[in-house]
């Protein structure tokens, strides 16, 4: 520890007035104690950086209900009744629109309180799928949203995501699908499908049960 010049001067004066002989000083037998002013000791330990900011952001998104998950989004849960969907986000914002071949069996619409670009699909009165389209700023828990590249989807999900040909577009159009539980043959299966357009970017994101593999609305 370095002693400031002013403090060193005080030390010298104290030594001169202590009555100790030069011999004592030479022998190192002086018994003077210098009390340094109390103060905090600087912490030399560097502050650790966050291990993974993106992982923390994903966790925050899930915790706050902002992320689209295979099981739902925010107050929506795949399998809930239409009444529960209405309680959560309100009724159809355009109730007069024809939104399915048979609304009693299958309907697609945007609830009044849903974010821009979000639609819901109900089959037999139960929430079967949530879809994100152009204008949506909602993302999955891995940070993938509409407009992301197919490469970004693969980088985020790795081997979990499976590619299949697009029903109407040539490559690079494709479907990238992953299942968190079950699969398309299981009513309890839950997954996410990314529709990739002719520019190699995500055009739609579907989350939910087997209905995420429907290519024409309710079929």
Automatic annotation (TrEMBL):
Organism: Stakelama pacifica
Biased composition annotated in UniProt, kind: Low complexity: 37-51
Listed name of the protein: Uncharacterized protein
Residue segments, region Disordered: 20-63
Lineage of origin: Bacteria, Pseudomonadati, Pseudomonadota, Alphaproteobacteria, Sphingomonadales
